[in-house]
Amino acid sequence: MSQLPDLVIAHGTVVNSFGRQDAHVVVDGGRIIELIDATEPVPAAVRTVEAVGQLVIPGGVDGHCHVAQVTGRFRTLDDYRTTSTAALWGGTTTIIDFGIPRDAQETPLDAVLNKKRLAADSRCDVALHGAVVTWDETVPWQLEQLAAEGIRSVKMYTTNRGSTMADGDTVLKVMREMVRLDGLTYIHAEHDAIITDCTEQHASDGLIGIEHLHRTRPELAEEVSVKETLAMAEYTGASCTSQHPAPWTW
User: How many C-beta atoms surround the C-beta of residue 153 within 10 A?
Assistant: First the structure.
């Protein structure tokens, strides 16, 4: 090397997809550039961290994050600084957030660009999924622009009417576009009519606390929506994943 690397993590037990070995990890420019067997001398570096008796593993990737998301009149309390700090404490070095349009005026492309701007405050790497709420004639072009930026996964909700919900026509049309673009359709699958009715019943009974939330998301609502989503994916030939709303199934 013509100059010293930024960092060496010395004498750690490196665990990756190839197995495990005792090694020195050489990092420069934010990238691992070399693994050196731990029996060899520790190479010089700007900074050296001793990792004797420690596991050294690749940073985790959290593929599903909602950072500073606006849904209707509500906004989550986090931001990229707090979310990325929490991620790093847990060993996650990349988060994948969603660029979801906050209303009918914000386009899928604008939603992603706005999230990219906010992500400048992140302390870890950030990638994005796109999202579509409402179909119009510009959506194919917008999806092409997202694909050109490396964003080939697009999320849609089958519930949350009046805010983030995409209707069946939109879901099907986006699936066809993602086939054309060799992308992935990512569906939050819950049957909206069931969810809405169940939520209204609980609200009328005064059961509006967080402890009742999971009961407003019956398993049947997910099952019905997943079946419909898979049918549309089969019909269009789309690659599709259906999000399991795990927080509701306590």
Answer: 21
Looking at residue 160, the DSSP 8-state letter turns out to be -
Q: Is the dihedral of CA 55, 12, 33, 31 positive or negative?
A: positive
End-to-end CA distance of the chain: 54
What span, in angstroms and rounded, lies between the C-alpha atoms of 84 and 120?
A: 11
CA-to-CA distance for 170 and 187, rounded, in angstroms?
A: 12
Q: Average pLDDT for residues 227-238, to the nearest whole number?
A: 96
Return the closest-CA partner of residue 67 out of 92, 44, 31, 30.
92
Q: Which residues have CB under 8 Å from 66's CB, separation 6+?
A: 76, 97, 98
E strand map for 44-124: 47-50, 55-56, 60-65, 70-71, 74-75, 92-98
- Please determine, for residue 247, whether its predicted confidence score (pLDDT) is greater than 50: no
pLDDT in tens, 203-232: 999 999 999 999 999 999 999 999 999 999
Pick from 132, 241, 135: which is nearest to 188 by CA?
A: 241
Going from the C-alpha of 1 to that of each of 42, 43, 44, 199, the distances in angstroms are 14, 11, 10, 63
250 by Cβ neighbours in 10 Å (0-12 / 13-18 / 19+) ranks as exposed
* H/E element, 209: none
Give the span between the Cα atoms of 8 and 25, in whole angstroms. Answer: 5
Measured CA angle at 79 (ends 74, 81), to 5 deg? 175
- Measured over the CA atoms of residue 102, residue 134, residue 174 and residue 241, the dihedral's sign is positive
